[in-house]
């Protein structure tokens, strides 16, 4: 039998949740990836709020419909040659015209690589399945809700907005490129079509998933060496005890509840 | 039936945990269990025990409750008419009383008293600092008191001493331990049964 038992119902867990989300603070994730025809380098940061916790025995807590507030900086590198065919005109000639011999050398023109910087901030509705995790980290015992899987990450509107931003950024990036004049319209259309809404959705999911998957919401925190009674005078120093073991689980004995067991020693 | 019922929070301490808390208290604040005057307790304080005045300036005294053990149980065996039933707890401890009289530079040590004590009490609620306990009756296990009047006096004295020494300050900080950053409001009356002291609270 554990020395101490603490039980929270779903209401209590939901009361604890905002503080747990705030304690996570702002998470940041960086990376790069390649999807034809672009190379993407990104930094994304995000924080969490809202949502509802649902308890499922023996160890599962679903956080449904919470909000991910995210900001991303995206640098898109694109080799225009992947969109617009390079110009290769073979040599012409030699043509002998009277006393003259005309030779037209080959013309080879490779389109350059352009970079599109892009910043975007938005929110996404997220639903995750978490498991309870207890650990002794440093001087404190923790009970965390650790995200195991993401069952919903709603970024459809963001994908459409980002694709529009990409299209708008292509024009300025093309300025100064020789011979591009007749191809600007085709380039914008070609780039946005090549990336496509599906590509942006895929990109967003790959950028935001590690951000959410790395989250651990701390719902309980106690020092291992904790004060049982506060100091009450010169002859009454603080009475300390040790938390030797903390475990957590979800039970349903009529309603789902989160149970924390602790063993203590003097 | 769920732990929390109509409340949001449930917390319980098993008697093993309660006794660990009692040991921590005993080790840290010995003066709650051990009091006396010179020469038994020397000023300044030693071992966290503060020297008290002699009775009438003549009688040196030393009162100790050693190794108190708590027992949370639904049904506590009735002995010598002590009340029992649900929501009661028992404590067993060894009571020692040493005393001597000093007159004109001569000191006369009087017979020490060593008694095994069993006391029964109920909980009292303090939602700010924790759940408190209060002794109601005490009895001697070592030998049956010779006569009703003496039994009544011993019951009164030991009960008063236990409440005065130990249980006036002892609180089980279950609400703060259970809720972490929150301050729950205890609902209903904390219960004692099945070796547990427990309560429900709302946030």
How does this structure look, described?
- The complex is a heterodimer of chains A (266) and B (203).
- Chain A has 266 residues and is α+β, with helices and mostly antiparallel strands.
- Chain A has one domain.
- Helices cover 24% and strands 55% of the residues of chain A.
- Chain A has helices at 10-24, 156-174, 184-213; strands at 4-9, 27-35, 38-49, 52-56, 60-79, 87-89, 92-97, 100-104, 107-109, 113-137, 140-154, 216-223, 225-229, 239-252, 256-265.
- In chain A, the strands form four sheets. In chain A, strands 2, 3, 4, 5, 10, 11 and 12 form a seven-stranded antiparallel sheet that branches. A four-stranded antiparallel sheet of chain A has the order 1-15-14-13. Chain A has a two-stranded antiparallel ribbon with strand order 6-9.
- In chain A, a hairpin with a 3-residue loop joins β4 (52-56) and β5 (60-79).
- In chain A, α2 (156-174) packs across α3.
- Chain A is elongated.
- The mean pLDDT of chain A is 90.
- Chain B is elongated.
- With 203 residues, chain B is an alpha+beta fold.
- Chain B is 20% helix and 46% strand.
- Chain B starts with 8 loop residues before the first strand and ends with a strand.
- The model of chain B has no long low-confidence stretch (mean pLDDT 79).
- Chain B has three helices and ten strands.
- Chain B has a seven-stranded mixed sheet with strand order 3-2-4-5-6-7-8. A three-stranded antiparallel sheet of chain B has the order 1-10-9.
- Chain B has helices spanning 15-28, 148-167, 174-179, and strands at 9-14, 34-37, 51-52, 59-73, 88-103, 106-126, 130-140, 171-172, 185-193, 196-202.
- Classes of the chains: A alpha+beta (266), B alpha+beta (203).
- The A-B interface holds A 1-9, 11-12, 15-16, 19, 219-222, 226, 228-229, 232, 235-241, 251, 253-255, 257, 259-260, 262-266 and B 1-4, 7-14, 16-17, 20-21, 23-25, 27-29, 31, 45, 48, 50, 169, 171, 173-174, 177-182, 195-196, 198, 203.
């Amino acid at each position: 039998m554990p020395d101490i038992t603490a039980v929270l119902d779903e209401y209590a867990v939901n009361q604890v949740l905002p503080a747990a989300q705030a304690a996570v603070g702002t998470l940041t994730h960086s990376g790069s990836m390649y999807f034809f025809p672009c190379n993407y380098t990104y930094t994304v940061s995000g924080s969490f709020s809202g949502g509802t916790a649902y308890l499922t025995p023996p160890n599962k807590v679903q956080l449904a419909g919470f909000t991910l507030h995210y900001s991303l900086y995206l640098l898109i590198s694109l080799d225009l040659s992947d969109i617009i065919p390079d110009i290769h005109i073979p040599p012409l000639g030699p043509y002998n015209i009277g006393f003259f011999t005309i030779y037209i050398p080959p013309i080879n023109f490779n389109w350059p690589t352009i970079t599109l910087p892009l910043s975007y901030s938005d929110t996404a509705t997220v639903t995750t399945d978490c498991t309870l995790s207890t650990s002794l980290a440093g001087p404190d015992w923790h009970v965390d809700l650790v995200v195991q899987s993401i069952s919903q990450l709603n970024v459809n509107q963001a994908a459409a907005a980002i694709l529009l931003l990409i299209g708008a950024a292509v024009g300025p990036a093309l300025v100064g490129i020789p011979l591009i004049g007749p191809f600007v319209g085709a380039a914008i259309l070609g780039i946005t079509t090549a990336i496509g809404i599906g590509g942006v959705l895929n990109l967003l999911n790959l950028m935001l998933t590690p951000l959410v998957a790395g989250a651990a919401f701390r719902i309980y925190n106690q020092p291992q060496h904790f004060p049982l009674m506060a100091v009450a005078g010169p002859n009454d120093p603080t009475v300390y005890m040790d938390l030797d073991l903390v475990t957590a689980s979800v039970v349903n004995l009529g309603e789902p509840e989160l149970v924390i067991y602790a063993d203590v020693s003097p | 039936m769920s732990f929390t019922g109509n409340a949001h929070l449930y917390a319980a301490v098993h008697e093993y945990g309660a006794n660990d808390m009692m040991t921590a208290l005993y080790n840290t604040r010995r003066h709650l269990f051990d009091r006396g005057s010179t020469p038994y307790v020397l000023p300044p304080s030693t071992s966290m025990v503060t020297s008290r005045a002699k009775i009438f300036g003549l009688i040196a005294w030393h009162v100790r409750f050693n190794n108190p053990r708590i027992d949370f149980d639904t049904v506590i065996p009735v002995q010598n008419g002590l009340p029992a039933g649900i929501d009661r707890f028992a404590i067993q401890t060894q009571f020692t009383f040493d005393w001597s009289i000093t007159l004109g530079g001569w000191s006369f040590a009087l017979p020490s008293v060593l008694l095994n004590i069993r006391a029964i009490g109920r909980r009292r609620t303090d939602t700010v600092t924790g759940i408190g306990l209060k002794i109601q009756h005490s009895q001697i296990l070592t030998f049956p008191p010779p006569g009703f009047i003496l039994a009544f006096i011993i019951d009164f004295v030991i009960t008063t001493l236990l409440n005065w020494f130990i249980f006036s300050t002892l609180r089980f900080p279950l609400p703060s331990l259970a809720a972490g950053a929150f301050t729950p409001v205890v609902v209903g009356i904390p219960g004692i049964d099945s070796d547990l002291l427990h309560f429900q609270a709302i946030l």
